[in-house]
Amino acid sequence: MATRLPYPLTLTGDGLVLRDWRAEDLDDLVALLDDPDIARWTPMTSPFDPEAGLAYLKRAHQGRISGRRIQLAITEDGGRPLGEVLLFGVDAANREAELGYLVGARHRRRGLASASLSLLSTYARSTLKLGRLLLRIDPANVASTAVARRCGYRLTGEAPILQFGPYGSSSLDTWELSGDRAATRLERLKNVAARRYGRRS
Ligand SMILES: CC(C)(COP(=O)(O)OP(=O)(O)OC[C@H]1O[C@@H](n2cnc3c(N)ncnc32)[C@H](O)[C@@H]1OP(=O)(O)O)[C@@H](O)C(=O)NCCC(=O)NCCS
């Protein structure tokens, strides 16, 4: 795979448009990220105020232009952001990378995280040629483990990673998507999403 991740980037499919963050997203970003579940399960600053939002957009932009990460707003039509999906920590030698996601509290339980993770995972495998995709999830995070499972990721036997954040410690399990299982599972999920949004792929 290329050592620099592509920028800019827009991924579309399953009724979603995943696009780069923009400066004018600041208010929506703050509304999405200033949330107790996000503070609990991610290393995000809390409370997440406009200052934190500005710093976040700046870091996201730097990560994008340097080609180190993919960090895309989840939208339905390229407009207002509803959440975020990321790919980072690329290990080019082993063709692996880590992914992450979050969805605003008002937009949850509509399949947005699963559809976004599925889109980015498919792109990572087919276009970036990454062979192994990883998620790190606290086992108590029921919603996130459900998303991982639904997208075909499976729990590995790797030792939990202890993470100390400002709001306590968490122990993160490693989930992976690799090999043929990934292709089969992602194809199935695509078909489910196409039915849900009333389209055929
Ligand atoms: C985790 C998160 C991204 C899920 O987003 P979402 O868009 O609501 O997820 P989806 O609608 O795609 O749900 C996928 C599956 O998870 C299940 N699920 C979602 N939220 C759930 C919850 N709170 N409890 C139980 N199951 C849940 C859904 O029912 C669905 O299962 P199904 O395949 O059986 O239908 C969202 O809750 C969130 O942003 N949480 C805070 C940040 C976070 O934890 N990020 C992940 C860090 S590892």
Explained architecture:
By secondary structure, this protein is an alpha+beta fold. The protein has a single domain, classed as Aminopeptidase (3-Layer(aba) Sandwich). The protein has six helices and nine strands; from the N terminus they run ββαααβββαβαβββα. Strands 1, 2, 3, 4, 5, 6, 7, 8 and 9 form a nine-stranded mixed beta sheet that branches. The longest helix has 18 residues, at 179-196. Coenzyme A (COA) binds at residues 37-38, 41-42, 101-103, 108-114, 137, 141-144, 146-147, 150. Pfam families: Acetyltransf_3.
CATH fold title: Aminopeptidase
Total separate domains: 1
Helix-and-strand structural type:
alpha+beta
Provide the helix percentage: 25-40%
Largest sheet, described in full?
Answer: 9 strands, mixed
Order of helices and strands: EEHHHEEEHEHEEEH
Mean pLDDT reading: 91
Shape: globular
The CATH H-level homologous superfamily: Gcn5-related N-acetyltransferase (GNAT)
Whole-Å distance between the termini?
27 Å
CATH level 1 name: Alpha Beta
Bound molecules: coenzyme A
| Spans where pLDDT lies below 50 across 5 or more residues | 195-201
Percent of sequence in beta strands:
25-35%
Which second-level CATH architecture applies?
A: 3-Layer(aba) Sandwich
Radius of gyration: 16 Å
Give short descriptive properties of this protein.
single chain, alpha+beta, Aminopeptidase, 9-stranded mixed β-sheet, 9 strands, globular, binds coenzyme A
